[in-house]
UniProtKB/TrEMBL annotation:
The keyword RNA-binding applies. The lineage of its organism: Eukaryota, Viridiplantae, Streptophyta, Embryophyta, Tracheophyta. A zinc finger (C3H1-type) spans 165-192. Keywords: Metal-binding, RNA-binding, Zinc, Zinc-finger. This is Pre-mRNA-splicing factor SLT11. InterPro entries: Cwc2/Slt11, Nucleotide-bd_a/b_plait_sf, RBD_domain_sf, RRM_dom, STL11/RBM22-like_N, Torus, Znf_CCCH, Znf_CCCH_sf. It comes from Dendrobium chrysotoxum (Orchid). It comes from the Eukaryota. One of its GO terms (molecular function) is zinc ion binding. GO terms for cellular component: Prp19 complex; U2-type catalytic step 1 spliceosome; U2-type catalytic step 2 spliceosome.
């Protein structure tokens, strides 16, 4: 095992050996300008691609938990995430939230069979500096603005989670009323919170931006705030668009949803009914899931061709519910 010093400004530390420096977010690094890290070559298998990688361990500050890198630098670069918390490096938000706001489609290996091929391809595309073109390309300013707003809410000391991530782990003896170490105990003397979403997170889901309970919480909150919370009537799979620019046609609407809603396939839009006289359109989705994903994306940004539009859920059809097919 060896040690490395990481300068948070990114200047010193690794020097010529850029690949020897971990990719980490500010929060995981902690408040100190220089962080002393232990370094273990091929210390563990990457939790995403299963290949052994260099594991770094460090303490982000007094009373904090020891942190270590969980995924390899290649995987971190692909998604532009921190090697430890797997949150977006720029915004500190879950991949699923970022990709919804920016309209980034899912990419990357989904099965073990093509995983090795995928990693090999990535490394073949790496340039001399070890940089790879990640799936996070340049995207519209609107999406970036939304993410800045969401990130601000997350780092708010009253409700943010940023500082909580480095806290010492809970003392299991304290929870049972059996800890007698008092103030000298390195663990946190608090009772565990029931239904804590962070404890149910799976690192692969978080990385790929699917089924991430923390992302779901953030997206649900923004969807509710935008008045686009999913209606109770599960048969409603239609979104109503209004204040459309006059030159918008059916093809524009379809393209907008397919390009901007992560994971939405074109065949998941059942129909688009334009009402040109009132600059409105009804977009009918094949499944409730597809409609909810579309509403989530619209809640974050309601713009079409750069112009702001209005979006609402369709209404229940009176009487229809009682008819059983
Ligand atoms: Zn990896
Ligand atoms: Zn981090
Ligand atoms: Zn204790």
């Amino acid at each position: 095992m060896s040690y490395a010093y990481v300068n948070k400004q990114g200047a010193a530390g690794g020097g010529a050996e850029a690949a020897e420096t971990p990719i980490l977010c500010e929060t995981c690094l902690g408040p100190n300008p220089y962080v002393r890290m232990s370094k273990q070559a091929f210390g563990k298998e990457c939790k995403i691609c299963d290949r052994p990688f260099t594991v770094f361990r460090w303490n982000p500050g007094a009373g904090m938990r020891t942190k270590k890198t969980e995924i390899c630098t290649t995987c971190a670069k692909v998604k532009n995430v921190c090697q430890t918390c797997v949150l977006d490096l720029q915004f500190g938000l879950p991949v699923q939230v970022r990709d919804t706001a920016l309209g980034i489609s899912k990419s990357g290996p989904s099965t073990d069979i093509n995983k090795q091929y995928y990693v090999n391809q990535l490394e073949a595309n790496m340039d001399a500096n070890g940089m790879i073109e990640s799936s996070v390309g340049p995207s519209s300013r609107a999406g970036q603005e939304i993410l800045k707003q969401l990130a601000k809410q997350r780092t708010d000391p009253r409700g943010g989670d940023a500082y909580r991530r480095n806290r010492a782990h809970l003392c299991s003896f304290y929870a049972k009323g059996e800890c007698n170490r008092g103030d000298a105990c390195p663990f946190r003397h608090e009772l565990p919170i029931k239904n804590d979403t962070t404890s149910k997170q799976n690192i692969k889901d978080r990385f790929h931006g699917t089924n991430d309970p923390v992302a779901r919480k953030i997206l649900n909150a923004s969807t509710a705030a935008a008045g686009l919370g999913a209606p109770d009537d599960k048969e409603i799979t239609t979104l109503f668009l209004s204040a459309l620019p006059s030159d918008v046609d059916e093809a524009t609407v379809r393209t907008f949803f397919v390009q901007n809603v992560p994971s939405l396939r074109s065949d998941e839009i059942r129909s688009v009914t334009m009402v040109p006289t009132s600059n409105c359109a009804f977009v009918n989705f094949r499944s409730r899931n597809a409609a909810e994903s579309a509403a989530e994306r619209c809640a974050l940004r309601m713009d079409l061709d750069g112009q702001e539009i209005r979006v609402a859920w369709g209404r229940s059809r009176p009487g229809k519910k009682s008819i059983k097919a």
